[in-house]
Amino acid sequence: GETCIGSAGLGYLLLHTTPQDRFERQPLTADGLTLVAAGRLDNREDLYDDCGISLSEQATTPDSLLILRAYQRWGEDCPAHLLGDWQFAVWDNRRRTLFIARDHCGNTGLYYYRNPRFFVFASNLKALLALPQVPRRPNLLRVAQILTSWPGDGIQTAYEDLVRLPPAHTLRVTETAAETYRYWYPERLSPIKLASDDDYVEEFLRIYRQAVRCCLRTHRPIGITLSAGLDSGSVAALAAPMMAQDGKRLTAFTSVPLFDGQTGAGNKRTGDEWAHAHATALQAGSIEHLLLTARDVSLVEGIQRFFELYQEPGNAASNFYWIMAILAEAERRGMGVLLTGQNGNATVSWSGTGSFFDLISREGWWAAVRDLLLTEAGFWQTLKLQFLKPLLLPAIRLFRYYKNGMQPPWHNYTAIHPHFAQRLQLADRMHETGHDATFTTPSAERVAKFRSCMTSGGATWHALGAGYNLDVRDPTQDARLIEFCLRLPNDQFYRRGEGRRLIRRAMAGYMPQKVLYNRRKGLQAADLGYRAAAQREEIYAVLNRLEQSPLARECLDLPRMRGVLTTLQSKIDTSTTSQCGSILLRGLGVGLFLERF
After folding, report:
1. What are 224-233's pLDDT values in tens digits?
2. 110 SS3 class
3. Among the four 243, 409, 438, 576, which has the fewest Cβ within 10 Å?
4. What radius of gyration do the chain's Cα atoms show?
5. Ramachandran assignment for 500, one of left (phi > 0), alpha (psi -120 to 50 degrees), beta (any other)
6. Kind plus residue range of the DSSP H or E element containing 567
7. Residue 284 CB: number of other CB atoms within 10 A?
């Protein structure tokens, strides 16, 4: 639906995923207000009372109407009262102001472009770029950030002047100004102190179950991306029994290597996650578990499809082929919702800082000393990990710098052209913002990890899922769950040298012990090197095209990318597999973006 009110126009395209979606009639109008909204509200029961929705109206009240009622009651303060994955815009014709807002955790997308005569916003970059008034110019700093795995600020896109509204922010637009406002500060909440370890686990499970249950509100079949890990595994372990109570089954999708027994995972990683993922599925019960090899999606096709849907390159280009294979299979099977545990590392399975110096900065001396006594397994472990390693870290970095021939720290994992990086003064920019290009800084505070997960991950899955008629939902990225996890004492996550204590204790009995205490992390796209070698002709064809693009030649070290592909013909191990993803495929993704300019 769409409507125009004078010089303002609002439009809406519906993806049916909740039972109330069939009652949607947008845009909505009332008292000079016009609203468009999309998403899912998780606190409908609270809003019924606050917004005067009678019992007879509740079953037929769509989420958009609840948002409009909330705006009528609380005005521009209403986003703080809305839980779930949502985005909305309200045009106030009397005051001639536009108000747009995005959910707490950034599980949706909101982009906009503004000049002195024109303002436009959309939930997807593709919609903005369809307008002739919107410029198409590459943001080369953001391109460099993608190439070097630098998350950035979460606001800039790969296009100049096209920006994201950050998570937990609102934007108010008038004829003369555009003002943003942040409405949620979970890091400012006071710490939680409960009586015992068991009390922490009990409360955690209560909130986690609530988050999972909210993500099950749909009249359509539900799927999940299931790995061998604790995040998606815990979501599946909680969701499947809930669905079984309603006579439904969860469909789980696990990506496995196409080249049986041939991966670049090495001895410390698991290249095939099927066995552990299947053990989780069997214990949870009521799960149809499917393995996918992504045989019919090439590496280049995965990158192209990602760009088609998201309109920006991504730094995880090595995963795009299997992500697209899962999304396509979920759509083929009629799924309407796809669950993930994408951001669990920052919440439910946070490993704990394990750093005395981080604890001092966050909790003060006395609390840090108390936690230190609980942190490591013994005196020598404490001395080594808490004091010697942090103190020696600058010397270790310096040693590696000289060992690598005084190359910048990103040299081993990026296809960025050295002259391009120098022209951007990339090292200085990283230093000014505190980005560690060596990725050797000890795991920082939970807030920093949480922020890095919020930069663009939710918007990415939002766009990809929509391309396959799917609503991608992540219970580990629930605002209530985040608040609880950020407020917990460090020893609930890390004690006596053991990380991820909370999730392991909470999931005891829900997930197999061999999964809970598996020390070998799964490696996604572990057979990447073999796939690239088998698809070398298609990849060489793209490299040849990129040679014709002046911008690609300026930004990318194309000879180095060719060298990685050549090496894969004779040697596939952990190092060349890693370089295939971080140098060759990420470079291809950026190149396919740059050749359009």
Report:
1. 999 999 999 9
2. coil
3. 438
4. 24
5. left
6. helix 558-568
7. 26
